[in-house]
Amino acid sequence: MVILYVTDCGLNFSTLPYEPTGDCILHEVKVDLWGIISSKICCQNALSVFSQALSIRIKNNSNENGSVFLDEDQWKKCNQPFIQPSVSISSCGFDNLFNGSSKCSSKSFSAFKQLGGYKDALQKCSQVKANVSFDATCGECNAAISDMKNGLLDDLNVDNNGVEKAGCGVAIVISIAVGRLLNDGNSSNDDFYRCLSASNQFDAGYIKIKSALAKEALAVLIAICGIALIILLIKYVTRSKRKETKPSNGKHKSGWSSFYQFSKEEIENAIVNGKACLGRGSAGQVFKGILPSGQIVAIKQIYRSNASDTFEREVNGLMRVKHKNLVSLVGYCMGDSEQYLVYEYCSAGNLAQHLLGKDKNLDWETRVRILRDCAVGLRFLHHHTDGCIVHRDIKLTNILLTKVQKDLEPKLSDFGLAKMLQIEHSKVYTDVRGTIGYMDPEYMSNAKLTCASDVYSFGIVTLQLLSGQQVIQLDLAARDQLTTKVIACLM
Q1: Do residue 110 and residue 178 come from a single domain?
Q2: Phi-psi region of 66 (alpha: psi -120 to 50; beta: other; left: phi over 0)
Q3: Which pLDDT tens digit goes with each residue over 224-235?
Q4: Residue 255 lies in a domain
Q5: Which residue out of 393, 414, 440, 454 is catalytically annotated?
Q6: In this structure, is residue 72 part of a structural domain?
Q7: Domain limits for position 274
Q8: Strand duo 329-334 + 260-261: pairing
Q9: Where are the alpha helices (DSSP H) in 118-210?
């Protein structure tokens, strides 16, 4: 697996999130990406990253009168394998996305801002957020982009296909991405680009066949499906009988293909480049790593004794959730004797370091904002569509911080103890696990797990943020818990 970025390309990819779309088994499937440019399904991530890099370039250069695209010579220098060896500018059909390749490609960001429909498209696309009516706002955004593209092609008197369609469409997307970055409250375009994928049109350019041949092909297909159904039925009956006589220890892992699977060599190279251990817990160590793209990640090595338990629970838990206030899973590695989870890197450390460390610099506004964002992330877990996800280990060290401009943005981390419950249900567990001082007393006494267990832990975190004290004082003369002290003050 080769991941290559060249320094003289003119684009900086190091700040962009590394989120591959899987192993691209169907790499030859044709698709109109974003309903704009004909390409392959494996090229979707590459188009998003290139587009984001171009928008960041315009924003950082503060030059609204230059072309939204690179010059041809610079664009050719970017033509290197991207994520997969088979994915590059030329193999994906992005060769003509450079300045001068079409009538739209020479236009500047300033020119796009003056076009009719730009303000409406920017306003609608700025409303696209993961936790705010995503489907409705996303549909309005894509419709506005399509209307703006069709209007521009009509004004230029060019056909709505081929090079002109691709150039105008991608240029409009870049101009809207720049507008979102420049507007207050839009420091990231992740939701916007996830929305664009909803406009993908599969099987572009298919070949029509004669009616007689179609009927013969349909008959063969029906026969094959019938045989396949019979085979599946036989396997199902056989497997059911086996389950009745012998319990199965196997775990279903088919959903893991949605994450990128790193090789052991890639993990080792990334850790060597990072050369730093970020921390150590009951489940394993966490190392700082650097991917070939330049992106910094956190690599968690799962101890062998905990591999079958913690590893699968954490991967399955993170498969279900994605939120700006939850740490994102980048990928995983399953070796013969070692297992790793690769997370996004939170550069500002954890909340305990800022609250209880030597440099205590959290003002009240920052503390309230951190509490609010943590509450939003916790609410997302507790009201997930698949059921209530109970974190079970809410504490200061599991709240990581990243810097967004000058503000600290919190993210809940470490889903090694997470449990899935049906909403408004509870469950009794024989293994009561968590961190002393943060655990719900009711959960500790009767092992009855509910969403309220997380709420109690979050309440302890709230008390710590308000008081700046540890949960359990280490001084022998003052071992009372923080909760006891607060109750005493209120009475």
Answers
A1: yes
A2: beta
A3: 888 888 888 887
A4: no
A5: 393
A6: yes
A7: 261-344
A8: parallel
A9: 118-125, 134-156, 162-182, 190-196
